[in-house]
Amino acid sequence: MVYTRSNQRSLTKAQKRRFVDAVLTLKRKGRYDEFVRTHIEFYQGDGDSGLRVAHMAPSFFPWHRKFLLEFEQALQQVDPAVSVPYWDWTVDRTPAASLWGEDFLGGDGQGSDRKVTTGPFARRNGTWIVKETVTDGDYLMRELGRPRAPIDLPSKAELADALDEPVYDAEPWNSLASAGLRNKLEGWPVRRGDPTWSNHNRVHRWVGGQMLGGGSVNDPVFWLHHAFVDLCWTRWSRSHPKAAAYLPAEQPALGRPGRGRVIAAGQRMPPWNTPVRDMLGPMPYRYE
């Protein structure tokens, strides 16, 4: 049975409450923190040794698609009617957007420590204690828009620029790839030292707090953000049917960039041992 992932702005109060309750239940049972640990473990970059799977690599999209599905299935074991909504950050672009409401994800961080004090994930409620983290503090932090050095969320034009890419990915298959959907939507600067972040990466930086690093899953907005990234990949695949094939198709040849460091089309993704191809076909969900 195919279920629907809805735009967060169209959710009813009851749907918001059911999503929040399911997330809090996973947190209470310790299951949520397992997802946090997984993301921290696989948050590896160009400069790290070994295989890159979740970030700065062609498998960015299929890895996070599998990650989202695992989380969604955990939610549905709590409440079968729940799915992960998506946040279109090209439309809902301010701290006044509905997803930051008291009845949903809560608002901005306050004070010098940027502690979130409103909503169901505020530390004061005792139900959302950050345990798996790469930062100090056991509370959720945000700095929406980064007032000390303001940045904007990605625009429709910036997203469209990424979605206009005619190929999936390209050498050197990392954060320096100057062509391909994957790096333009993931949003790494294409030159070392370039301060410009785009699309997916700039959203993480706009939210701030835990969303800045490997522990970004500590903020539930992570899932809404990545559901929209997954939707963008879905749209691109449909509009580029002849170019939508995952790349690289095979492991790069000896001496070529990425050899032994990236996942090729026929290989499996840890930690699930899931073939990349399993994440390329029809999915059990559709987007509203």
What's the topology here?
Layout: E1 3-5, H1 13-29, H2 31-41, H3 60-78, E2 109-110, E3 115-116, H4 156-163, H5 181-186, H6 199-207, H7 221-239, E4 268-269, E5 274-275, E6 285-287
Parallel strand pairs: 1-6
Antiparallel strand pairs: 2-3, 4-5
Task: Walk me through this protein's architecture.
- This protein starts with a strand and ends with a strand.
- The protein has 7 helices and 6 strands, in the order E-H-H-H-E-E-H-H-H-H-E-E-E.
- It has one domain (3-103, 155-199, 211-287): Di-copper center containing domain from catechol oxidase (di-copper center containing domain from catechol oxidase), CATH 1.10.1280.10.
- By secondary structure, it is mainly alpha-helical.
- It has a two-stranded parallel sheet.
- Strand 2 (109-110) and strand 3 form a beta hairpin.
- The chain has helices spanning 13-29, 31-41, 60-78, 156-163, 181-186, 199-207, 221-239; strands at 3-5, 109-110, 115-116, 268-269, 274-275, 285-287.
- The model has no long low-confidence stretch (mean pLDDT 94).
